[in-house]
Amino acid sequence: MAEADERTFLGLSDVSISEDIPVEGEITVPMSSHSQDDDYSTLDEPVKETIIRDLKAVGKKFVHVMYPKKSNALLRDWDLWGPLVLCVSLALMLQGGSVDSKEDGGPQFAEVFVIVWFGAVVITLNSKLLGGTISFFQSLCVLGYCVLPLTVGMLVCRLVLLASMGPINFLIRFIVVIAMFAWSTLASTAFLADSQPPNRKALAVYPIFLFYFVISWMILTFTPH
Amino acid sequence: MATVDDLKFAEFGDSANLLPVPGDDTTVTIEDPGQKPPASRGLPRGAGREEDEELLGNSDSDKTEQLLAGQKKSSPFWTFEYYQTFFDVDTYQVFDRIKGSMLPIPGRNFVRLYIRSNPDLYGPFWICATLVFAIAISGNFSNFLIHLGDKTFHYVPEFRKVSIAATAIYAYAWLVPLGLWGFLLWRNSKVMSIVSYSFLEIVCVYGYSLFVYIPTAILWIIPQKAVRWVLVMVALGLSGSVLVMTFWPAVRDDNRRVAVATIVTIVLLHTLLSVGCLAYFFDAPELDYAPTLSPAPPLKQATTMVKAI
């Protein structure tokens, strides 16, 4: 038996390759279709490329929020960079500008931060407890990115407040904040509502409404010194 | 061949169809996911369901509760599924419970009728959260309106008050039920015939009974003392009577004095919460002056111009 094995094994030794034919080439291992995070191939690239790729991903998600269609980009490739940037910029813009503000009743930086993140976590837990199928970080990602219209609204309000105060000033800010609040709420429900059981959709959407309402109130009542 | 039909799995359709009570709503919402859940426009449907339960009688509901009590909450408390059992409510159920908390009908026990051994934590938690923000925002807005004509008043959003409101309301909605539950348990050990509700059912009743304060807080913006006190009376009457009618059957078999003292304490704490919120978050409208801009003397104008920068 071993001899037979040996014979089949030695079968290839009869084949001789002529020395004229060069044997060269590359051996490539066929890789399975990979997602964007295959670490070993991005380890050698320059840092600038990595940062630009992440920035592009964040920017693409911003565009998805501003024009909410039912795409899966926000849900599938979640990241929390965008929400962090938005939350920090919103909290910074909500500061009154005076350092030792004893009488400034506006929200402190930590309060805004806690409200945004703790609120998003509570809403995510709520939707999961009601039987939603979305994952924890995907939901955090969507809720954080949908703060973008309100951050833009805050920027507009600060610019409008550079002009003189008065009822027209307030009216402009009111309209802008209401529009951005509606945009945020509609964008986030467009992404999140499908993952809820159908007879509990209103129960899952109401906390999102409350969340953006509170942020809108903080923006609207902002008064600089 | 007949055997093929015998072997074929018979579709029962949506399993919720088998249940007479919530079946209609579930099927409608599954077919039309874009629609609002029908319970929000189903006020007559809610009344019909109450009549069904009225016909069922109390004995049937008790048996169902005993059966259901055996099936619920089988997961250990460190798993996620355990907490999911507390959120096992549909939209129409939440609406029905809210409706039931605002319309006390004599003889109808909120716990028996609406909760029926399915207490949920969704209602208490989100009603308290909404109430916190409603009181803080309404108080702020009302103060702004009251001091509108006053040039020396500098408007601040008063964000501190949100934290204070949150502490007060969540403490009321969770610590008072804890105390009441412990008290009922203690009395139950002495007087056997007392019905003691579970802790979550008491939390549920208290949470839903706070719902009537949300429109009340919004209406408290009106800067008239008489209007505000009328609102307090109405809200207190509605939610207080729901609480009384829930807990009276639980304590009436006890010593007369203890029973009355318990009910009085419940009502008193409820009153304290509403009056306290009104006093702390809403400034008193001292003068009923209309908020018109009075012509300010030049000195005051200079100071306000400096302030506005």
TrEMBL record, chain A:
Task: Output the GO biological process annotations, alphabetical, semicolon-separated.
Answer: endoplasmic reticulum to Golgi vesicle-mediated transport
Which gene is this protein's source? YIPF6
Query: Any keyword Metal-binding?
Result: no
Q: Keywords on this record?
A: Membrane, Transmembrane, Transmembrane helix
- Please give, as recorded in its UniProt entry, the membrane topology of this protein: Multi-pass membrane protein
Location of the Yip1 domain:
67-218
Membrane-spanning segments: 78-97, 109-130, 142-164, 170-192, 204-223
Origin, by domain of life?
Eukaryota
Would the keyword Disulfide bond be found if you checked this record's keyword annotation? Answer: no
Its subcellular locations are: Golgi apparatus membrane; Membrane
Say which family it is in.
Answer: Belongs to the YIP1 family.
Gene Ontology CC annotations of this record: Golgi membrane
- Put simply, this protein is called Protein YIPF
